[in-house]
Specification:
107 residues; alpha+beta; Ybab, Chain: A; 3 strands; 17% strand; rod-shaped; YbaB/EbfC
Length: 107
């Protein structure tokens, strides 16, 4: 029993170290969200830092409300992609590690 607990503790420490590495790497991974058939696009990291916003020039003469809606939709698309990619990275690390009582990592 004591050896099992020690083994589990070593596994937990290794998972924790790997999680730190993944969390750090998420700041360098970029995703692109878009809306309006690509008229608006937003590039952001998986840590939700927006790096670039592209707006098709044809939208600049359009209705301000429509442009705001397209920006919001592109941002939300990028956030969903960042969350999905982050979850995939975390799942790859925690695969096979027994999580007591349905415990989840804070992502």
């Amino acid at each position: 029993m004591k050896n099992q607990i020690a083994g589990l503790m070593r596994q937990a420490q290794q998972v924790q170290e790997n999680m730190k590495k993944v969390q750090d790497s998420l700041a360098d991974i970029e995703v692109e969200g878009s809306s309006g058939g690509g008229l608006v696009s937003i590039n952001m990291t998986c840590k939700y830092d927006v790096k670039k916003i592209k707006i098709d020039p044809s939208l600049l003469s359009e209705d301000k409300d429509m442009l705001e809606d397209l920006l919001a939709a592109a941002f939300n698309d990028a956030v969903r992609k960042a969350e999905q990619l982050s979850q995939e990275k975390v799942s790859a690390i925690t695969a096979g590690f027994p999580m007591p009582g349905g415990m989840k990592f804070p992502f």
